[in-house]
Each structure stands twice: as structure tokens, then as C-alpha cells.
Write a structure and sequence with these properties.
There is one protein chain. The chain has two domains: 209 residues, Aspartate Aminotransferase, domain 2 (3-Layer(aba) Sandwich), CATH 3.40.640; 110 residues, Aspartate Aminotransferase, domain 1 (Alpha-Beta Complex). The strands form two sheets. A seven-stranded mixed β-sheet has the order 1-7-6-5-4-2-3, with helices on both faces. The chain has twelve helices and eleven strands. The radius of gyration is 20 Å and the shape is globular. Helix 2 runs parallel beside helix 3 and helix 4 packs parallel to helix 5. The protein is of the alpha/beta class and 350 residues long. The protein starts with a helix and ends in a 26-residue tail after the last strand.
Length: 350
Amino acid sequence: MSVAGLAGATSPCVVFTSGGSEANALALRGAIAGAAQQEDRIARLFISAIEHESVRANASALAEAVPGLKLTEIPVTGQGNVDLNALRLNLIQGKGRVLVSVMAANNETGVVQDIRTIAKLIKLEGGEGALVHIDAVQAAGRTAVSFDAWGTDYMTLSAHKLGGPQGAGALLVRDGAPLAAQIAGGGQEMRRRSGTENVAAIAGFGAAAAELADFSDGMGALRVLRDRFEAELAQMAPGFESAERQLQKTQRLAQKVAADLAGADPMQRHAGKIAAEGSAAAVGHQCHGAAAGQQRARQGFRREHVSAGAAGGEHDHAGLAHVSTPPKRRRVSASAMPMPRPSASIDEPP
């Protein structure tokens, strides 16, 4: 299976990039610039309250730089899902062409959005020429993703989230969707993204996609391990409040645990021990934490816009910890699969 095949698309849709952040930037900036070139400008840009920083930062910069562009943030429910009523109201109340960016699965809580329903709503209520961008970096290879069936216009993917090499990502672009290249030069990627491609990383991207063609085989085992891990952590860490309990009625990725701990220091000290067992563990934002399951979580914390949004407002998430298992490329059973275990001394002082 190819990169396009994993996402339910065809090869001509694929624009290879250096990673997910560049692909997100190309989607937003390229769509808005491309629409302007076609003299059918995008006047309204919507992002959800739980988007990755690469979407939030680019959206904010565009709103400041592009005359007449209005940026609106769509709230999420207490379960971490995009508030469909709020989205609909914002779509029907304004005027001008729309671009909406939503992530398929959240990088902190693991909550999976109903993208088919969201995309349908945008196309129905967003007016003529409404465009949909989906950040599927976390979702691809973990849950079903379908660029064509969802009816989206742009989709972001990243190799290393599939177990492939760092330094390769992709933006899928629907035929006919506006897209202006943001890097001038040699005209690579069918003139959509100039610059010599990282061929070795792209080959690894394709290999990782092929390995995950049957990703669903291991998801049941991962859910069992996740639930067991959360149950043990709840017993060992006072104040623990699992995403499972907070988001009981919400679909989320099988391999992800988002634990809200009463105090960051215990998890901070033990993140490295969990990582040593083969899983990525971090306190605070994932991108600032353990890499490839080998590094200790960074020092220093900040409030998480994702979890605060899901909680319905500002919340001190200095103790928000993330534990993710790496992609599994072979069928395994829950009993045979190694499980990261919380330290028995997680609540003890240093």
C-alpha cells in the first residue's frame, strides 16, 4: 500500500513535504493564496479550539497579513469533539468563501473527530466553494482515514507518526482545489512544492504506510493495554483523572493516554522510566516531550489549550501527561505485548 492508499486517495493527490507542520502551512497558506490567484478569495478561515500549533500559528499569521480575512475559532464540547452547532452557526452567519481546518484525531487527548459529518456540514452550510482541510497526522495508521470518501479538499500526513523516518510528510490535495506553491524554485511535486525531495525519507514513508495497511488488527490489543495501564495509574497516582473517565462517550485513539495528574513533579520524574520501556512519555505538549520513546520529558510546562478547551475553559494542566505506544507492525495479543508500567513510587517525594 502507498502513502495515498493508506489515506484513501490516489497518487496524483500527494504533495510530499518535509513533515506535518510544513504540510499544514502549505494547506492554509497555499489554499488562501491559490484562491486569490483564481479571483475567488477565501474570506473566512475557521479552526477548532484544539488544533496543533502549526495550524494555529499559521492561521493567526494569515489573519493578520491577508486583508479581509476573518479568523474564527470553533469551540469543542466537554468530550473534546468539535461543537457542530457552533460550527453550523458560524458558517451560516457570515459571508464569503470558507476554509475550515480540523484535526482528525487530537495529539494530546487522542479524541477522534467525526470527520465525515464535519465535512458534510461544511459543504452543506459553508456556501459555494467551501474548502475543508483535515490534519490526519495522528489518525492515519491508527484509525480509518479516507480522503476521497470524506469529501475533503486537503489532508496532512506525517511519516514518523506511522513509524517511518523523520523529515517526510505529505499534503493530499483534491484535484481542482486551489493551491499556490509557497516555495519557489525547481517546480518539484508538479509545481506545488519546489525543493529537492528527501527521497530516502519518502521511501521510508511508503514502507511504513505499507506495513500499517492492516493496522486495525492490533487496535483491540492496544485498547486492552491502555485500559490496564490507566487502571494501574489510577491506583498509584493520587489525583489521577484519566481521559477514559472524562471522555467516556467519545472515540479516541487506542494507543494514547492523557492523564491529568494533581501536580506535575511525580510524572515529570517518572516519564523517563516509562519511556525506557518503549513508549513515549511526556508532561506538557507532546512535541516538547520524549522523542521516539528514548528521551526524558522536557522541564517547564505551559497551559494546554487542548485540554482546557475540552474542560470547558481555563484549567491548570501543568500535570497533564501523555503516554503513547509506538506503531505496531505485526499482529500481537494483549498478553504478549509489553506494557509501560507506572512506577510504584510515582507519588513519593524525590
